[in-house]
Write a structure and sequence with these properties.
about 550 residues; alpha/beta; 6-stranded mixed beta sheet; 5-stranded parallel beta sheet; globular; binds 6-O-phosphono-beta-D-fructofuranose; SIS_PGI_1; G6P_Isomerase_C; Glucose-6-phosphate isomerase; cytoplasm; carbohydrate derivative binding
Length: about 550
């Protein structure tokens, strides 16, 4: 789609339609259609999605689908699955979906049998995980591994830590995991302070194996390990494994490629959890559970690939997000998991959505004339209720929100889950329908307090419910959001798979690093603000 999407008849029709919707309240939409709460729902694999509490009519959905057709969404989706180089600025295929193809599938891309490559790495991961979990793989002094420390950042951290936390109820290998990402030395210090090097395994995860934070943390981990094991460098071989696309850099770091698990440049960092990047998750829950997670992903991939646009759940949810961003003026999007296990899910989604769609030029380099990239944020319910929900209920901003919950808890303690879920159901209802001035007054509220207690309602939410948080439903949920992101990216005509915007800061950090310690530092090319800040820092550090 070369032309500016805002000039299409489909976009213009949505603009006109948005003016009508602004006058409509969810109370009216529900009153006019008693079946709305059953009708505007969908299922994808084991996920039940209720989108009836969104600010949409059947006409809105029809117009949004027409927009998706106009921009050629189905063709873009097909291109991704086929291995076309849709990541044009890096000239790469985008094939995270191949990571979860069943063993029996076939896909050859750029002359390479992708399925065979993926399965070979999964097999090596599984063999390694079995040895560690069974105690067959021992450390340098013969002790079994009790703690795995995953060192990585961005996609090499957020996916694994989020999944590890999400699937803790399935952790059964006697191995616990910790995650170090920040180059702030406090992070690695805090992670290893109470550990015994003899029973600690470091998994260094970096697609490029050149990321400053990860290499600095990995070097410090190696120093700590060797010092703690009597200074014997040979210990590294039993306590360090790597996950990367670069054999050479792994070797240069001093990790034997025998102990390396590879992946490929067609897996974006933020899409890499189902690759070897998920090794720490596999060490925690075991290869069988990991396979169930991949099958969960695949079920949603298949739906996304084959379902018609109007019944395609990730497409529908992506289009709703476009609707709020571009036609109703939403600036942010809350994601509110009613599951403590998913407490890192919002942070994970921030990278997935914001690094993917935070772009301001189209695929051909033309500046966009419309907003892109949703700002995702959130906390698990019910903590959020006692923090920021006030603004969603009574503030002036439109904040569409996704509510995620599971009918069965992974720990059934008394009636606590019912109590918990009553909050989930209450919040979306309160947000949608609110409380009118008449209702508030009828409760005997003093007149001067009535305006303060009125709840306008009409705040849109989508409810996503599964029976239980399992590896399979977890994989389904992540795949759902991956494909929502692609849907938005295609409508906005941007490339969701590059991230040039993070490069400048990395380059500048490397350029500035010598100025922080050097005696005869050269400040010639540094702006006066940054130079003053660095000089002040140096004074405090006695340099
Ligand atoms: O933040 C930029 C980024 O390139 C992310 O896309 C990526 O997930 C992260 O850095 C880590 O990169 P790597 O896995 O190569 O260390």
């Amino acid at each position: 789609m070369a032309a500016d999407v805002t000039t299409t008849a489909e976009w213009q029709a949505l603009r006109t339609h948005a003016d009508e919707i602004r006058e409509t309240h969810l109370r009216d939409l529900f009153a006019a259609d008693p079946t709305r709460g059953e009708r505007l729902t969908a299922e994808v694999a084991d996920l039940y999605v209720d989108y009836s509490k969104n600010l949409v009519t059947d006409e809105t959905l029809r117009l949004l689908t027409a927009l998706a057709e106009r921009v050629g969404l189905a063709e873009r989706v097909a291109a991704m699955f086929s291995g076309a180089h849709i990541n044009a600025t890096e000239d790469r295929a985008v094939l995270h979906t191949a990571l979860r193809l069943p063993r029996s599938a076939s896909l050859t891309v750029d002359g390479q049998d992708v399925v065979a490559d993926v399965q070979a790495v999964l097999d090596r991961m599984a063999a390694f995980a079995r040895r560690v979990r069974s105690g067959q793989w021992v450390g340098h002094t013969g002790e079994r591994i009790r703690t795995v420390v995953n060192i990585g950042i961005g996609g090499s951290d957020l996916g694994p830590v989020m999944a590890y936390e999400a699937l803790k109820a399935f952790a059964d290998g006697g191995v616990s995991c910790r995650f170090v990402s920040n180059i702030d030395p406090t992070d690695i210090h805090g992670a290893v302070a109470d550990l015994d090097p003899a029973s600690t395994l470091f998994v260094v995860v970096s697609k490029t194996f050149s990321t400053q934070e990860t290499l600095a943390n990995a070097r410090e981990a190696r120093r700590w390990l060797v010092a703690g094991l009597g200074g014997d460098e040979a210990a590294v071989a039993r306590h360090f494994v790597a996950v990367s696309t670069s054999d050479q850099r792994v070797r240069d770091f001093g990790i034997d490629p025998e102990n390396m698990f590879g992946f490929w440049d067609w897996v974006g960092g933020r899409y890499s959890l189902p690759s070897a990047v998920g090794l720490s998750v596999m060490l925690s829950v075991g290869p069988e559970r990991f396979a169930e997670m991949l099958a969960g992903y695949h079920a949603v991939d298949e739906h996304f690939r084959t379902a018609p646009l109007e019944r395609n759940v990730p497409v529908l949810m992506g289009l709703l997000n476009v609707w709020y961003t571009n036609f109703l003026g939403a600036q942010t999007h809350a994601v509110l998991p009613y599951s403590q296990y998913l407490h890192r899910f919002p942070a994970y989604l921030q990278q997935l959505t914001m690094e993917s769609n935070g772009k301001s030029v189209t695929v051909d380099g033309t500046p966009v004339s419309y907003d892109t990239g949703e700002i995702f944020w959130g906390e698990p319910g019910t903590n959020g209720q006692h923090a920021f929900y006030q603004l969603i209920h009574q503030g002036t901003r439109l904040v569409p929100a996704d509510f995620i919950a599971f009918s069965e808890p992974n720990h059934d303690i008394g009636d606590m889950h019912d109590l918990f879920m009553s909050n989930f159901f209450a919040q979306t209802a309160a947000l949608a329908f609110g409380r009118t001035a008449e209702q508030v007054a009828a409760e005997g509220t003093p007149a001067e307090l009535v305006p303060h207690k009125v709840m306008a309602g009409n705040h849109p939410t989508t409810s996503i419910v599964a029976d239980r948080l399992t590896p399979a439903t977890f994989g389904q949920l992540v795949a759902l959001y991956e494909h929502i992101v692609l849907t938005e990216g295609v409508i906005w005509n941007i490339n969701p798979f590059d991230q040039w915007g993070v490069e400048l800061g990395k380059v500048m950090a490397n350029q500035l690093a010598p100025l922080l310690t050097g005696q005869d530092a050269e400040f010639a090319d540094v702006d006066s603000s940054t130079a003053t800040l660095i000089r002040r820092y140096r004074r405090h550090r006695g340099r």
